[in-house]
Here is the input.
Amino acid sequence: MLRGGRGTPPPPEKNSSYTSGRPGGFILSGRIIPDPRKTPGLGAERRESVGWPAPALFEQEGGRVQRIRPPILQHYPSGQALGDIYRRNREQGLRAAWLMSRLHAFDLLKFGINVDCLPVLDVPVEGSSSVIGNRAYGGDPKTVADMGRAAAEGLKAGGVLPVMKHIPGHGRGFADSHHELPVVTVSRDELEAHDFPPFIAMRDELAAMTCHVVFTAIDPDNPATTSSKVIDGVIRKRIGFKGLLLSDDTSMNALAGTISERAANIIAGGCDIVLHCNGHMDEMRQVVANTPVLAHAALERATAGLAGFPKVDQADEAAIRAEFDGMFATV
Here is the structure.
């Protein structure tokens, strides 16, 4: 999937590349949504530029990973802030997670965006990199699984498809994979007890995103995104995830090699979709040149994902927003 350009509408060069490259979808950036009056249906415009209803992805978690911010959209709290409510009152915490995701769906559909890279199912450990940090709902698998499920259900209630991340778990990373490669050296038993459970609990979701993390107990030579041992042996077989598997961003520095080599390695490792997010057209072309057309099991998973978009419920946006804002006004 390719990042949409830096302006709207996309220049002819990008429209042509989108059409010829037949991307599996688009992941959009907050920098191309400067004014809601000028960008309604922006995601739909990108999708229509390739001649088919390609999905439009976004990364709208809340907290510091909120790509559309005030004054366009209200500020939303972090996953940790939602988890704090859960730790005081489980039912209220689950309701808060559902409400915030339902509001994300209201917000994103107005821009024609129908996929959100949420929930974050990583379970951090003490001393790990802040790249996950307060994006996580908590430091124990049960909290993360419960809150992740509620968040996913809120998105689906609003007609937005969730992408759980970062499978099989970025919580133990002691480095920021945007800049360097995290290497996790704990035993397989520790991973089974702490990192995998939220993904196992939500393995029936239709889409997930990998992590650029090496797990030495499974594959000491390759990060999960490019490791057939992790993808086939852990994600597909142990966790039991059968849905569409997206790589994390190809342009992140945790991955070695040229952009072309990274894209090829991602496919060789077993991912279905190569995600490229920095908006550089020359790199997009290299990704396209090294990414095969979806076929066989990957095509079946993509088709199931597109067919799995839930119907929008009849919730009242003003009422949902008032309930959520009131919940946090008392915190």
About this structure: Residues 168 and 196 are 6 Å apart (CA to CA).
